[in-house]
Amino acid sequence: MLIREAELSSLYAQQSYYRWKILLFYLLWGALGYFATLTSSWLLSLIAYIGIGFIMLGILTFMHDAVHGILFRNKRANELVGNLMMLPFWGTFITFKEDHLKHHRHTRTLKDPDRISPVERTFLNYAIFYLYFFFGGFLSVIHFNFIFPFTDFDKEKLRIHAISSILYVTVYVTAFYLASVYHFWWVLLEVWLLPLIFFGIFNSWRFVPEHYNAGWNTDPILATRTISTNWFVRFFWNNINYHIEHHLYPAVPWYNLPKLHEKLYPLFKEKGAIIEKSYFRVCLRALRQGPEELQH
Asked: Which of 228, 237, 165 is nearest to 203 (CA)?
């Protein structure tokens, strides 16, 4: 055990007042969306879309805690809120959950559904790797709705995925129908659909650095990367940058990850863990080097 049980219990403890941050993020989303619909400046609209996309990623990280059952103490609350939070992202909660938990069980192995290393360095793998940086949102929709559920799910999970998809599509169709009838389609476009493009880019540039060129079939401390980044990113992405810490103790909620980092840092230095300062720098390095070669 890396940390004593008494220390772990305090790190595992959930604090309900941190959940007010969820409401704050939705209010910020609404405020930026309202601003985008009012301004006649394309530049200010673009800034609003980028801001909403950035906040969307923060909401996804809240949903990520629901996947691990630590956003709320109640399992049903995690499932309900997790499903609602996934609604804007064109994917079902169960698919994200099962994919992500499998990723934790098989990090940086051939069974990892989120692995960066291709089996072969083919033209297709190169194309997908580079496309993911800028069109990752669209590729994720394909992965979470079709590829992963139809290759990994049993009949029961596939049934839940199908029911969830039908409910989600019903909401989408209803929203588009009402927007068409009452002529507010531009609201959906500016508050939701255009910001999704930037959300997808932010998510890709967050996702790739977490494991790119990290250890393969190795100690969990060496299989991922922590990025110190800056206070702004840490605040809006809810400390997801403490990724080694999260993989070691996935039941620690987002607001306790900085404390966990402090306790583990001496061990990280001893073991040579990968700790870097910038998501952007890792992504630039990945773009220069291309997809990893498969490590055995």
From this structure: 237
pLDDT per residue rounded down to tens, the chain (296 residues): 588 888 899 999 999 999 999 999 999 999 999 999 999 999 999 999 999 999 999 999 999 999 999 999 999 999 999 999 999 999 999 999 999 999 999 999 999 999 877 777 788 889 999 999 999 999 999 999 999 999 999 999 999 999 999 999 999 999 999 999 999 999 999 999 999 999 999 999 999 999 999 999 999 999 999 999 999 999 999 999 999 999 999 999 999 999 999 999 999 999 999 999 999 999 999 999 999 876 55
Query: Which range marks the domain in which residue 87 is found?
Result: 5-289
DSSP at 144: I
pTM for the structure as a whole: 0.96
The dihedrals phi and psi of 58, each to the nearest 5 degrees, come to -60, -40
Q: Can you tell me whether residue 275 is helix, strand or coil? A: strand
Nearest to 135 by CA among 205, 191, 216: 205
Q: Does any domain span residue 162?
A: yes
CA distance 174 to 168: 10
DSSP state of 89: G
Is 276 exposed, middle or buried, given 0-12, 13-18 or 19+ CB atoms closer than 10 A? middle
Number of domains in the chain: 1
- Tell me if 70 is assigned to some domain: yes
- Contact by Cβ (8 Å): 237, 64: no
Is residue 296, in this structure, part of any structural domain at all? no
Q: Decide: helix, strand or coil at residue 187.
A: helix
- Within a domain: residue 295? no
Q: Where are the alpha helices (DSSP H) in the chain?
A: 5-12, 20-38, 42-67, 75-86, 93-105, 123-142, 148-152, 155-181, 185-188, 194-211, 231-236, 243-248, 257-271, 279-289
Residue type, 122: T
